[in-house]
Batch of 3 targets.
Target 1
Amino acid sequence: MPIQTQWPFAKIVAHRGAGTMAPENTLAGFRVGLQHGYHAFETDAMLTKDGQAILMHDPRFGRIIRDTRSVPELTFAEIRNLDAGSWYSPFYAGEPPMGFETAVHWCQANRVWLNIEIKPGLGDELETGREVGRLTSRYYQDLIRDGGATQQGIVPSVPLFSSFKVDALRGAKETAPNIPRGLLVDEMPENWRELLAELDCVALHCNHKRLTQELLDEVHELGYWVFCYTVNDPKRVNELLRMGVDAMCTDRLDLVRPIV
């Protein structure tokens, strides 16, 4: 059936907390995102060697952490001792990666909503989804309601899960059935309609560069919202909003203003 319910979250979301304004997925970065007026962040949750959740986009270090190892090789304590800030600027030297629990509690204290992208290591898709689901259910237990993973039942202060990995969403659905889910894609798989239905998703999250009006209309006609990543040009933001896109994330917090 055609989509009936308006997107209940912020329309413009800060990518990885601070976009390009500060080190991604760090407490310092989250603070910068808030200073730019954003109260909705996209972030990444991954499991360490000892099964604890930490905010990290890349399983293997090298891009933002000067190390040759990977998240699944190290314990939570070992990763928290790494420097996730120097790559950005000397000002942030020594800024550690942020633990998932710390991130959630900070966001709750500062009224920041989260789109949690589940980022499993290779072969760890199902368990990462299950654990992130368990943790999120625990931290938001006072807000989660039966039917909360449906468009009509969503509680706007409860996070939204998303993932490129279908098994990660399956795991999250298993342990957190009342937290809403979105399927992340780059190129549209042939079975995208079936996956959205199987996973009981509320939204399709897609690359804005691949989005057409025809696809957008079809997704809406099937009853799902459309969230786009990562939109850094204000003109493109306005174009997508005119097309009818429900929400998007951005790196350019200095150019794109938050829209609630």
Target 2
Amino acid sequence: LERPGPKAPASLRNRQDRVPESWLTVDNLREKVAVITGGASGMGLAFAHRFAAAGMHLAIADIETPALESAVGELHAAGAEVIGVRCDVSEAESMQNVATEVYDVYGAAHVICLNAGVSAPGTMAELKLIDWEGVLGVNLWGIIHGIDAFLDKIMIEDEGHFVITTSVMGHTCYPTSGPYTAPKHAAVSIAETLYNELSAAGSQVGVTALCPGLVNTQIVDSIRNRPEHLRDRAAALPSDEDQRVREALLKEFATIALESSEVADLVHDAILDDTFWVFTDNRHDESISRRHAEIRERKNPSQ
């Protein structure tokens, strides 16, 4: 995509024209630049709308070109300053291209939401290497590539905030969730480490670890975005019974899941308040507490 939407004002593209101020003392995000991976749908698109309402300039990155074009058009129609960049976060060069585009257009980046995520349910016995590669490429390397592309630049400016989308699954372990749980645990570790390093350096750059529970998104259908070389063409198609069970579960899920817009409000407030931990509900508190207790007491894991 070639920079859909209008360019930002010239003053934003020229860093020397911006008035320096402490990031932690600003009371709003107006005129700041937000970069959002997985920004064309789900929580990412909700973040974009929330940040636009706060007067931010947007750069949304996504692997789905039609969804990206639709999201850019939707945001632009709502009055947002926005560009869209197609990006495969599992590839370092692709993420670097996003950073280049953002700095070329806006001259700055302030809020970096590393939000792209996919899933591949199944037991360890059932899963194939391509399942692990597909999920780890997005959920782990997507975060690493995002930090690599933006951290140095943001640290030089000494203002900004990283929002790393982890999950309650980064604090728990359940059967059939290996490829998803493993990088989410890693994402929590990366977020904590980054926070501690920036704090030790006296940096004004903040970090939020977003740990969603049940949120109404399309992640259950994320296989649609898996690269061709990681698709299992020999896999059997789901039976009619499998489809009925899946649809029933999704229907039940939708009745208790939080809306993405509600999560976006939490993220917006966390950035302004410099809050590290953001959980979207307390449904998994007991499981998390039990796991921590089992670790302290050196007990075998319980389901």
Target 3
Amino acid sequence: VAAFSKSQAEVIQEWVERLRREHPEAEAFFSAHQYEPFFVKNLENVQGDERDVIFISVGYGRDRFGKVAMRFGPLNQTGGERRLNVLITRSRIRCEVFTNITADDIRVGPDSPRGLVALKRFLGFAQTGELDIPQETGREPDSPFEVAVRDELVKLGHEVVPQVGAAGFFIDLAIVDPRAPGRFLLAVECDGATYHSARSARDRDRTRQAVLEGLGWKFHRIWSTDWFRN
């Protein structure tokens, strides 16, 4: 078992020791592996150990208001992504992840620590088997048309992020899920600069949409002529 924090590892270790005392029939499992015994370690000291299966316990969660603070200890520091890399590569065959938050609970932007971005991608992959996680880029809309659409969506009460990156594409406008700020409800594509710069009609009209929908996006396209007419 690999836990994210020392205190969490200590709690798990106490639980395991109590289990072994209360259920002596389980002792055969713990003593059967002479050279690779069962262990409980945290993110700081798991380096160097490998096992066929590693259970990863993510000890971060929501506060009493239901919010997830973007404070993830060592992962927020310089080199945090390397710590996470060490943790998730301790298993030869399989990782089992236990967590009460998902990738959707983690919101990342262009200035987010690399460790935080890596954690979001890892949790997303553990849940879905897909590595592409949409990220806010901090870029501005590409055209006045996109600005106009964004402003109208904001008037309707939505939080809108322009130029979200996913699978090498930049989605014109993405509507944030208010219940999970790291998740987007809808990809809104406008026939603006990105649309007109595509090499072919197939790229414009089919390929981008197919790729995004394949990644789980709900997709909506707004045509400028329709927009200005109504």
